């Protein structure tokens, strides 16, 4: 019933696809997180001129499908003569936007950055007031307080929500296959079009995604045990207590 | 306007809206059924529901959609061959709605399950003590309070779901994304047309945010909040 040759014959493509999916997920999550930390600080500012632009950025990227964002960047930018001129002049920065890999990486990074900014901003706002007062009483400057108190605390509190975002990003990278990239989904679509065996082609990719998802969940559980140790339920005291 | 593509994009927008609303309805039904199964005392009901939510939430929606669209067509072909019926073409509209509903049913299951568990047991006992029937306890006490806890989660799920409707363009449904793609190719102005699609999705998610904000207030009328 199951034609295993569809899977075994395409195993190298699946392996390459898996590697590309991992690259896209990990690189965009890292870059997105690094950009999101300063943006989250700006987002929690009380001045409209400061939080306004960040709000507009996250509103756009969270309110539109990532597929459209990717198509807008990959197919859309070529519409402008100015960008065509940059490509002609071999401008290294703008050439990123001619390659599907660069476009996918930029789109995924900006998208996850928008969601992460809002997650971190929420965590920053949830800082207990006493911690801020204590930091001020110790004579910390605003920057020192951010570095030592606000950001570390917010990163911890954001961990559970961020693990969901990381899984969404892993799944989101599947749309890279729509701009000719051979990620895991691309490999599966290729295997399907060669053999017309949808179950073998897509279920195998699905099983690999499932494995990646569980690995990610496991990693985040370890991270939570480490960084949110103070919130874990207490272990029962062993031995007679009285 | 828009090089004469405005009416066609409007048709696409209407189709996308239909896909979103119909798959929401399907996902709500599957979510309620899934949550009931997960909270059931019978293992025979719990096990498939756990399998459903685990697998569906672990696989990208695009892979799921391709599997249902191409796999569904193959299963239907096998069935029609066996029964010697005529060839039936899988309608991408039906496949899209079915897949989105099936995927988000799993997320709604988790939302509803948490919300059902958040209703204090004493409320249900009080209902029973008044002599209410099981249905009365469900419809007057459990369901309305469950909905209050479920609404923020449902709102989030619905926002994600609206954006996932863009994926139906990949299986060939002429939704707004697909039509914008075509218009962009023929006019050589893809940026313009994708920007219009962005505006459409922004409008849809913004209106949904307002509606859900209203519903949350409506269902939380009896909740007292500490003054900030």
Q: Please tell me the overall pLDDT of chain A.
A: 92
Structural shape of chain B:
flat
How confident is the prediction overall: mean pLDDT of chain B?
Answer: 91
Low-confidence stretches of chain B: none
- Share of β-strand residues of chain B: under 5%
Short summary:
With 242 residues, chain A is mainly alpha-helical. Chain A has helices at 4-9, 11-43, 48-63, 66-76, 81-88, 92-95, 100-125, 129-137, 142-172, 184-195, 198-227. The model of chain A has no long low-confidence stretch (mean pLDDT 92).
SSE topology:
The complex is a heterodimer of chains A (242) and B (228).
Chain A: H1 4-9, H2 11-43, H3 48-63, H4 66-76, H5 81-88, H6 92-95, H7 100-125, H8 129-137, H9 142-172, H10 184-195, H11 198-227
Helix pairs in contact in A: 2-3, 2-7, 2-9, 2-10, 3-7, 4-7, 7-9, 9-11, 10-11
Chain B: H1 6-38, H2 43-58, H3 61-83, H4 92-118, H5 121-129, H6 134-164, H7 176-187, H8 190-219
Helix pairs in contact in B: 1-2, 1-4, 1-7, 2-4, 3-4, 4-6, 5-6, 6-8, 7-8
What features would you describe in this structure?
The complex is a heterodimer of chains A (242) and B (228). Chain A is built from eleven helices and no strands. Chain A is mainly alpha-helical and 242 residues long. Chain B has 228 residues and is mostly helical. Chain B contains eight helices and no strands. Chain B has helices at residues 6-38, 43-58, 61-83, 92-118, 121-129, 134-164, 176-187, 190-219. Chain B is flat. Chain A binds chain B through residues 59-60, 63-69, 71-72, 75-80, 170-175, 177-178, 185, 188-189, 192, 196, 198-199, 202-203, 205-206, 209-210, 213-214, and chain B through 55, 57-64, 66-67, 70-71, 73-74, 163-167, 169-170, 177, 181, 184, 188-192, 194-195, 197-198, 201-202, 205-206.
């Amino acid at each position: 019933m199951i034609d295993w040759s569809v899977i075994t014959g395409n195993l190298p493509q699946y392996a390459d696809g898996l590697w590309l999916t991992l690259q896209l997920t990990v690189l965009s999550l890292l870059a997105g997180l690094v950009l999101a930390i300063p943006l989250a600080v700006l987002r929690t500012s009380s001045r409209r001129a400061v939080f306004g632009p960040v709000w507009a950025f996250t509103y756009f990227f969270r309110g539109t499908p990532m597929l459209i964002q990717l198509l807008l960047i990959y197919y859309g930018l070529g519409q402008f003569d100015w960008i065509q001129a940059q490509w002609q002049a071999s401008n290294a920065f703008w050439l990123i936007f001619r390659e599907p890999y660069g476009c996918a990486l930029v789109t995924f990074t900006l998208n996850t950055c928008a969601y992460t900014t809002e997650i971190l901003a929420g965590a920053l706002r949830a800082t207990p007031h006493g911690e801020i007062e204590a930091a001020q009483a110790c004579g910390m400057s605003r920057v020192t307080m951010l570095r030592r108190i606000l950001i570390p605390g917010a990163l911890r509190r954001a961990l559970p929500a961020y693990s969901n975002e990381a899984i969404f990003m892993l799944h989101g990278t599947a749309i890279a296959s729509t701009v000719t990239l051979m990620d895991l989904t691309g490999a599966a679509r290729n295997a399907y079009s060669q053999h017309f065996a949808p179950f073998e082609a897509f279920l195998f990719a699905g099983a690999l995604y499932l494995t990646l998802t569980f690995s990610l969940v496991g990693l985040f559980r370890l991270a939570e045990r480490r960084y949110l140790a103070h919130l874990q339920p207490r272990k029962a005291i062993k031995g007679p207590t009285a | 306007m828009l090089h004469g593509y405005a009416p066609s994009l409007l048709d696409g927008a209407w189709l996308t809206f239909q896909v979103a609303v119909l798959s929401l309805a399907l996902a709500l039904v599957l979510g309620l059924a899934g949550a009931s199964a997960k909270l059931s005392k019978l293992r025979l009901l719990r096990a498939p529901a756990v399998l459903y939510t685990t697998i569906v939430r672990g696989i990208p929606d695009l892979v799921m959609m391709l599997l249902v669209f191409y796999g569904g067509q193959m299963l239907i072909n096998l069935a029609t061959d066996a029964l010697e019926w005529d060839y039936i073409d899988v309608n991408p509209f039906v496949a899209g709605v079915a897949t989105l509903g099936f995927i988000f049913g799993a997320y709604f299951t988790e939302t509803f399950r948490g919300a059902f568990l958040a209703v204090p047991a004493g409320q249900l006992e009080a209902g029973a003590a008044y002599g209410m029937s099981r249905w009365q306890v469900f419809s007057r006490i459990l369901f309305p309070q469950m909905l209050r806890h479920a609404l923020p989660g449902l709102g989030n799920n619905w926002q994600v779901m609206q954006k996932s409707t863009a994926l139906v363009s990949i299986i060939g449904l002429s939704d707004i994304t697909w039509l914008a793609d075509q218009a962009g190719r023929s006019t050589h102005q893809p940026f313009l047309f994708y920007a219009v699609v962005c505006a459409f999705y922004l409008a849809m998610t913004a209106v949904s945010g307002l509606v859900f904000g209203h519903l949350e207030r409506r269902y939380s009328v009896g909740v007292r909040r500490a003054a900030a």
